[in-house]
Write a structure and sequence with these properties.
The complex is a heterodimer. Chain A is of the alpha+beta class. Chain A has one domain: HPr-like (Histidine-containing Protein, Chain: A, 2-Layer Sandwich). Chain A has three helices and four strands. In chain A, a hairpin with a 2-residue loop joins strand 2 and strand 3. The two termini of chain A are 19 Å apart. By secondary structure, chain B is α/β, with parallel strands linked by helices. Chain B has three domains: 120 residues, Orthogonal Bundle (Enzyme I, Chain A, domain 2), CATH 1.10.274; 97 residues, Glucose Oxidase, domain 1 (3-Layer(bba) Sandwich); 312 residues, TIM Barrel (Alpha-Beta Barrel), CATH 3.20.20.60. Helices cover 47% and strands 14% of the residues of chain B. Chain B is built from 23 helices and 16 strands. An eight-stranded mixed β-sheet of chain B has the order 1-8-7-3-4-5-6-2. In chain B, strands 9-10-11-12-13-14-15-16 form an eight-stranded parallel beta barrel. The longest helix of chain B has 26 residues. Chain B is globular, with a radius of gyration of 28 Å. Classes of the chains: A alpha+beta, B alpha/beta. The interface between A and B is medium-sized, with 28 and 33 residues.
Chain lengths: 89, 572
């Protein structure tokens, strides 16, 4: 399993549009993804769950990836957060 | 009685109230314990979801609705919610484990989600509760095989009153009869706000429980400018508001009447009033508002919202459309200005500590020359269809200008060899938005045909202020004497070489700055199209000699506040 932390620097946090793009990205891999903010852990497959986390500017989140193609998936998730959401970490 | 809310779309409407009630579907309370019956409920639910998705897809592709990008975003989010595995799972579970009917399970799960979203701190996410409510209603309607209520019939001068307007309500609304909105919930990001603004209808949101005092058919006034509803106004109040309405109407009519007047000062100086745009479609609005050209055509839209770079052909047809629709009026195309706060997912640029001081705009173009070449080739090929000019963003030194020009030269050579037509003397300019460029304008001007001052970045860089940062944004002020000296230097140096200077930042549409910039000798003001008439109104009423005096006086003042106070006096 690979776990990655990101600090969200996009001023609007994670809203419907990036959440939708993130879901689309995860669907291209065989691995299973989960998302964690503070003590809340959710499977990364539902828009409702992502928005319910209320991820805001400055929040730290972790993405957990598990599966055969987890390394490729981690790279893709990395570049997604780096570029699409203007994050660092 | 007066009810306060948040005005999200300006203007005044006087009409009669129509209370829009959500079609309440009642909880049946039926218990379904038989396993087969449960499976039937699940099947019914799944089928209702499939039909609901098909419905939204068909709204999406309905050309007669003239959907805007905002509308499409909303519909995409709804499709995502309709297929959401969490919602589906919760509903299945309620049917299986709690023996609820599909109807009851949907109502409970949707209510729970709506409640949760409404209570979120984040206003934008809170506003998504109406999407959840909307998809819930859509599934229920299909589940209970009720026919879709196709566009409600409203009387003339209807003002809609609702808890919240659902995206389906607003997207398919009859705009000829509905003249205003007021909602109990919602904020600046709600659908009501977005749609009302896009359609130019006065609207107030977040009015709270007092809104329930309004009855069907009540006479009401919606003042979207002040964020106030007046319920059952007496004749005197109606008279006052009709007068206000007339003032607003006359102002608009007056500004429209300016459209075809040339932008010439009282003492005969011609000033170019141009617009900033991002797509060919906006050109219509530019001409409607009397814009004579485009001072800044952004190209980022071509590159955003997609997974790969646009091909040369895609770019060519984009620029060609602009060239054709501009009917030979000048259009300044700015090459890719990405980076900083504008990122592309497929570019894979690593996060930077200081994005606005980092890898962006011309710096990327000169580094990834293949991308730059494609863009230049596409612009050049389109240049035969109109009066296009090229402008490079974020220039900080002479070498960048020379390198960019060398790229342009190579592309021209290549096209020539291939026998492809283009405008060989296409105008070339640079953005002046970095203080070093403003200070060395005398050197840079020798390389180009024109300058365009980007005051937003110039101001930000000169004052070292990130204006998105609330803690320091108050320091951001384009009337800072340091900023004014830079701008004035740029104009002076360009004029020494008989070259022209435009300004495409927000300062161009600031009425307080108009005379000052005119006094400095600015040749071209470029701004959002709808602000052109008000700036033209200032220009034609004043003279260059007065503007020069304003400029002289301002340069003798030592702080922004004094300058602003003085300019406010001047413009009165």
């Amino acid at each position: 399993m690979i776990s990655k932390d990101y600090i969200i620097l996009s001023p609007q946090g994670i809203h419907a549009r990036p959440a939708s793009a993130l879901l689309k990205l995860t669907k291209t891999f065989k691995s299973s993804f989960s998302l964690k903010k503070e003590e809340k852990l959710i499977p990364l497959k539902s828009m409702l769950n992502i928005l319910a986390l209320g991820i805001k500017f400055g929040d730290t989140i972790s993405v957990m990836i598990e599966g055969d193609d987890e390394e490729d998936a981690a790279l893709a998730i990395d570049s997604f957060f780096m570029s699409y959401l203007k994050t660092s970490g | 009685m007066r009810i306060k809310g948040v005005g999200v779309s300006a203007g005044i409407s006087i009409g009669s109230a129509y209370i829009l009630k959500e079609a309440k579907t009642l909880v049946s309370g039926i218990i379904i314990s038989d396993k087969e019956a449960k499976e039937i409920e699940i099947k019914k639910f799944n089928q209702a979801v499939i039909t609901a998705i098909e419905e939204v897809e068909s709204i999406k592709s309905d050309k007669s609705l003239n959907l805007k990008p905002e509308d499409l975003d909303i519909l995409d989010t709804q499709i995502e919610f309709l297929g959401d595995p969490q919602i589906t799972e919760d509903i299945h579970e309620k049917i299986f484990n709690e023996s609820k009917s599909a109807n009851d399970a949907i109502i409970e799960v949707i209510d729970g989600a709506v409640h949760m979203f409404r209570n979120m701190e984040d206003e934008y996410i809170g506003a998504r509760s109406s999407d959840i409510r909307d998809i819930g209603n859509r599934i229920l309607r299909n589940l209970n095989a009720r026919s879709v209520s196709s566009g409600k019939q409203y009387g003339k001068n209807t003002i809609l009153i609702a808890d919240d307007l659902s995206p389906s309500d607003t997207i398919t609304l009859d705009i000829s009869r509905v003249i205003g909105f007021a909602t109990r919930y919602g904020g600046k990001n709600s659908h009501t706000a977005i749609i009302a603004k896009a359609k130019g209808i006065p609207a107030i949101v977040g009015c709270g429980p007092e809104l329930t005092n309004i009855r069907n058919g009540d006479a009401i006034i919606v003042d979207g400018t002040c964020g106030e509803i007046i319920l059952n106004p007496d004749s005197e109040i109606i008279r006052i508001y009709k007068a206000k309405q007339e003032i607003i109407f006359n102002e608009q009519a007056f500004l429209k009447s300016l459209r075809d007047l040339p932008a010439i000062t009282a003492d005969g100086q011609n000033v170019r009033l141009y617009a900033n745009i991002s797509s060919a479609e906006e050109l219509e609005q530019v001409f409607e508002n009397g814009g004579e050209g485009v001072g800044l055509m952004r190209t980022e839209l071509l590159f955003m919202g997609r997974d790969t770079l646009p091909s040369e052909e895609e770019q060519f047809s984009f620029y060609k459309q602009v060239a054709i629709k501009s009917k030979n009026r000048p259009v300044i195309i700015r090459t890719l200005d990405i980076g900083g706060d504008k990122q592309l997912p497929y570019f894979g640029i690593p996060a930077e500590n200081n994005p606005s001081l980092g890898y962006r705009a011309i710096r990327i173009s000169l580094d990834k020359k293949d991308i730059f070449f494609i863009q230049l080739r596409a612009i050049l090929r389109a240049s035969v269809f109109g009066n296009l000019k090229i402008m490079f963003p974020m220039i900080s030194n002479l070498s960048e200008v020379k390198q960019a020009k060398e790229c342009l030269r190579q592309v021209k050579l290549e096209l020539e060899h291939m026998g492809v037509d283009f405008d060989p003397s296409i105008g070339l300019g640079i953005m002046i938005e970095i203080p070093s460029a403003a200070l060395m304008a005398d050197i840079l001007i020798n390389e180009v045909d024109f300058f365009s001052i980007g005051t937003n970045d110039l101001c930000q860089y000169t004052l070292a202020v990130d204006r998105m940062n609330d803690k320091v944004s108050a320091l951001y002020n384009h009337f800072n004497p340091g900023v004014l000296r830079l701008i004035s230097n740029v104009i002076e140096q360009a004029h020494k070489q008989n070259k022209s200077v435009g300004l495409c930042g927000e300062m161009a549409s600031d009425p307080l700055a108009t005379l000052l910039l005119l006094g400095m000798g600015l040749d071209e003001f470029s701004m959002t199209a709808r602000l052109i008439p008000s700036i033209k109104n200032i220009l034609i009423k004043n003279s260059v000699s007065k503007a020069r005096e304003v400029f002289k006086n301002v340069m003798g003042m030592d702080d922004p506040e004094t300058i602003i106070n003085y300019l406010q006096e001047v413009i009165k």
